Amino acid sequence: MNEATRVLLDESRIPRNWYNIVADLPVPPPPPLHPGTCRPVGPDDLAPLFPTELIGQEVGADRFVPIPPSVRDVYRLWRPTPLVRARRLERALDTPARIYYKYEGGSPSGSHKPNTAVPQTYYNAREGVRRLTTETGAGQWGSALAFACAQYGLECEIWMVRASYDQKPHRASLMRVYGATVHASPSPVTGAGRKVLEETPDSPGSLGIAISEAVEAAGAAQDTRYALGSVLNHVLLHQTVIGEEALEQLASLGETPDVIVGCTGGGSNFAGLAFPFLREKLAGRMDPVLRAVEPEACPSLTRGVYAYDFGDTAGLTPLLKMRTLGHGFVPDPIHAGGLRYHGMSPLLSHMYELGMFEAVAKGQTECFEAAVRFARTEGILPAPEPAHALAETVAEALRCREAGESKVLLTALCGHGHFDLGAYDRYLSGQMEDLALPRDRIDTALAELARLPGT
Ligand SMILES: *Cc1c(COP(=O)(O)O)cnc(C)c1O
């Protein structure tokens, strides 16, 4: 076995194709439904929101989708990303497990999000769109889209969830440096935002509310489309560059993973790392366990239901069959803002139903404990979202110690936490609480679901 610590690939190894796992599933995922007719949505329903090429990718079943040369050229700014063996963490845990992390925090905006922001912006620009609207939770997606819009000369207008806007004002500053316009959501500039503000003037906001605002704004202008940073099939597709590279990097060391761990908000970084390995698993070439980690404060996989629901709070999107806590659910303002989404990617939700991966939920203090341990050993400051994956990776490494097993663990370190130091301060000064969710709050949110068509 090769003993390298940091595995770097040459630029020429940036993948040439994205991998579409739908081609290899035993049963295709259920389609999105039009809320009025309860029929599957067609391309015409989506055309006001998304460019043709992305709609094709959303419903496509081709196994491989070529990455356009222009997109590969922007990827060259930070891809291929490093795969690193966390030897110092292993030593600190005294574990026989070998721990690897795939680090996406070295991208221009600091997370995996530019992997999809760049192609989404490219396809929109190619179809003559002049402005993109979007929501952002933790601010990672907003920064990524603002960066991509700067690359292709598009305007960018962003609704940032109020809780994150207040916790991390400098994320909004970064978006403005890239040239974007940023509103705290709920905002008075859309009907959806005004409605929430009337009922709850001090609302912390949620991704669902911010999506309603961005979708409304895109629908109101001819030259404007909407871009989503997670959840949808085309987003998961673009993120598979992570797993394709990791597959090659681990193979160059003569390693195959036993356990692959990623955090899940809408599911894109987990899917991006896991899907290429799952392809190999389905083909019988390896047999890793795949495990998603979500926050206890927003447990869509582990405590939600599998049902048709809206992707946003106001009910402007098609109905998506997914694991959901109900579109009216507003998660507590935990520090992992990127994991505060009421639903889960329909594709991952379908695969969860098929038993293709596992899920666990974690409280935030355990995650920050693992993140601080990681920072003190490996040096990188993780974002609060991948801290969830690190907490499970540490737990698995400790189980390996108990059992004397030298498993190979692979985790997605999908972003850095340089804008999250306020949260680290709270943790270090003992002010951080776990915000576990009482059953009655889930029941209340789910009660609304029973009134939806198709459920
Ligand atoms: C957006 C984001 C997430 C959550 O989104 P997924 O689609 O589940 O990946 C997690 N981590 C970071 C760093 C993010 O920016």
TrEMBL record:
What is the role of the protein in this entry?
A: The beta subunit is responsible for the synthesis of L-tryptophan from indole and L-serine.
Taxonomy of origin reads: Bacteria, Bacillati, Actinomycetota, Actinomycetes, Streptosporangiales
For activity, the cofactor(s) needed are:
pyridoxal 5'-phosphate
Write down the EC number. Answer: 4.2.1.20
Entry-linked InterPro entries? Trp_synth_b-like, Trp_synth_beta/beta-like, TrpB-like_PALP, TrpB-like_PALP_sf
Q: What is this protein called?
A: Tryptophan synthase beta chain
Provide this UniProt record's keywords sorted from A to Z. Amino-acid biosynthesis, Aromatic amino acid biosynthesis, Lyase, Pyridoxal phosphate, Tryptophan biosynthesis
Q: How does it assemble?
A: Tetramer of two alpha and two beta chains.
Question: Is Nucleotide-binding tagged as a keyword?
Answer: no
Q: GO terms for molecular function, please?
A: L-serine hydro-lyase (adding indole, L-tryptophan-forming) activity; pyridoxal phosphate binding; tryptophan synthase activity
Q: Tryptophan synthase beta chain-like PALP domain: from which residue to which, for each copy?
A: 77-415
N6-(pyridoxal phosphate)lysine modification, residue list: 113
Question: Do you know which NCBIfam families this protein is assigned to?
Answer: PRK12391.1 (NF009057), trpB_rel (TIGR01415)
- A Pfam family name for this chain? PALP
Family classification = Belongs to the TrpB family.
